[in-house]
Structure formats: C-alpha cells, structure tokens
Specification:
Strand content: 25-35%
Distance between the termini: 55 Å
Order of helices and strands: EHHEEEHEEHEEEEEHEEHH
Number of strands: 13
Length: 318
C-alpha cells in the first residue's frame, strides 16, 4: 500500500479568510501535462479559464513558482491557486466572540451565516470572517451549525490541536443545549426523550425518519409557554443532520421559520432575513482536552418570535 504523502504548506496566502485551492495530481493518470489534467478536472470553471490562469502564472507549485503551461504531469504533485469567488449577499449580522484564548475561539453565530465555506457560501461564513477579523489564518471549526441556526460554535487556533477538540464532539463529550420556539400543544407530554433513525440523502434538502435502529436521540423539555407559542429546551445526545428540526416536527410542533419541516417550501432569497429559523445553540459545556479547564459558554442571542413577537408577526428583520 502506497503511503500517503502529507501535503506541503500552502505557498499562497489566504485571501479574505479563504484558503487557496489545493489540488493533488492522482496516481495512474493518463494526462500528458498538468494543464491537461486541470482542464479535465475543473470543468465548472468555464471555457478557457484554466488556460488563462496558466498564462497569468496563477497556478503555482509547492515552491510558490508558477507552473508552466507545458509542465509534464507528475503523479502526486500538488498545485495551488486562488479561487475566483462568485458574488455573495452579505449577511448583515456580526459574529460575536464569546471566548478566545491560545487554543480555542468560541463564537456566537447569527442566523443565515454558514459556519464554514460550502457550496455557494464561501466568503459569507463565520470561519472566513473570524480569520480576517481576529487575524488567525490557522483558525478551523471543530464542529458545525446549520446556516439557518444561530448560536455557539467552537473553533480551534492550532492545527495540531484540532483533532483533540473534534474528538470531544465525536465521542459525545460536549453537552449541548438548544432553544427553539414552536407551537404550544397542551396534549404533548413533556419532558420526553425522542429516539429515531434519521436518514439524510445527498442532494435531498430534507432529512426523514426511517425504520431501523435509532441513530438520533434528543431530550425535549418545555421551558415555558404563552398563548399559542412555547419555548423548548432541547438536549441532543447525537448529532444527525437536522436532528432537532426533524424531532420537533415529528412531535407535531415544527420550529417557527423552518423552510423544510414539516414540508419543503419555496427557497427564500439570500437577501431575505425576515424569518430566521427559531433555533438557537444556547449552551456548550466540556472539559478542555488540552488545558483540562472546565468550560461553560452561553449564547447572548435571543429568538425573535419569543422576545419580539410584534416584529416577528410583522415580518421585520431581527
């Protein structure tokens, strides 16, 4: 078995908190040149784009020098380039830093802002913003929140320590508490622990519950209620995609502002910030795997439908 060669450090700097793209030429390739391979791989770039990047010297090797247009194909070779970002609608809400030390940054993310670059959301992400605002190019996310969910996210400062913090989440050693605003149902017996099997298929917006051994467990408690609305406390034991949204919808009390549950609705334009999903990652508790410190972090954000019901009813932005 061929041992995987670790990538060398990037010869290009970040741009606006975004890493340069790194490409490794695969073994067993049939391409004659590096350019030929990249043209075949980067088909989404558009006609002539890759060739123009070579001509401009924008594709570089590990030494930081431009790769020549006729450079021969070398299996295992790494090349880098800066991606050209498509325009994104700015998310007009700040990322609040709750805690920062030499090892971690805990941020309070607003609704509508993705945690890390993915799909069409690249620059408008918590990670890119924090790297630029805090001046920490090495910052990485230890876990993620959905773009539509607000609240606490843990980032790591040192690449060599990231795995230790990610393991906390993988081993369920982080106690997470969420808050949600949803309809009040007097007949719904709470507290209760919901257990089900959730399946999220690639390319399908909504997850669904299926038969089989449970892989999603959520403790659901009623914090308080007034009139037709209730504030729920959610304590997940697992971390399946959309788990909390699926479980509350299955109980008959879907979270306000949810575009997917109980049914998928028409996509909301990226510049429409009027109806944020009323779900908040309220609390994180864990023992720091590097320092041994006991951490408890609490979000300072509120959910509009509960704290500003008039603005929510009027469809006004938070």
């Amino acid at each position: 078995m061929r041992r995987r060669t670790p990538p060398p450090p990037a010869p290009l700097p970040q741009r606006d908190g975004i890493d340069p793209v790194r490409v490794r030429l695969p073994f067993g390739g049939v391409w004659a040149t590096v350019r030929e391979y990249l043209v075949a791989r980067l088909t989404g770039a558009g006609p002539g784009v890759v060739e123009a990047m070579f001509d401009a010297g924008l594709i570089v090797g590990a030494d930081g020098r431009a790769v020549a247009p006729d450079a021969p194909y070398e299996p295992g070779m790494f090349v880098w380039f800066q991606r050209e970002l498509a325009p994104e609608v700015p998310v007009p809400f700040p990322v609040q830093v709750v805690h920062q030390d030499a090892h971690i940054v805990v941020a309070d993310k607003p609704h509508f802002l993705a945690t890390t670059p993915r799909g069409t959301h690249v620059a408008q992400t918590a990670l890119a913003r924090l790297r630029s605002e805090l001046g920490i190019p090495s910052l990485s996310a230890a876990h993620r929140l959905d773009r539509l969910t607000a609240g606490l996210v843990l980032f790591t400062v040192r690449p060599e320590e990231r795995g230790a913090y990610q393991t906390l989440f993988a081993d369920r050693l982080v106690r997470k508490e969420y808050e949600a605003i949803a309809p009040y149902d007097a007949s719904l017996a709470l507290p209760r622990t919901v257990r089900s099997r959730i399946l999220k298929e690639r390319g399908v917006p909504a997850a669904r519950e299926v038969q089989g051994e449970p892989n999603a467990v959520t403790r659901v408690e009623l914090a308080e209620h007034r009139a037709a609305l209730a504030r729920y406390r959610l304590v997940p034991e697992t971390g399946q995609t959309h788990q909390l949204r699926v479980h509350l919808s299955a109980l008959g009390v879907p979270i306000l502002g949810d575009p997917l549950y109980p049914e998928v609705t028409a996509p909301v334009p990226d510049d429409d910030f009027r109806r944020p999903l009323q779900l908040l990652a309220r609390r994180l508790e864990f023992t720091d795997p590097v320092t041994g410190a006991e951490h408890t972090f609490v979000s300072g954000r509120t959910l509009q439908a509960w704290h500003s019901p008039e603005r929510w009813a009027a469809g006004q932005e938070p």
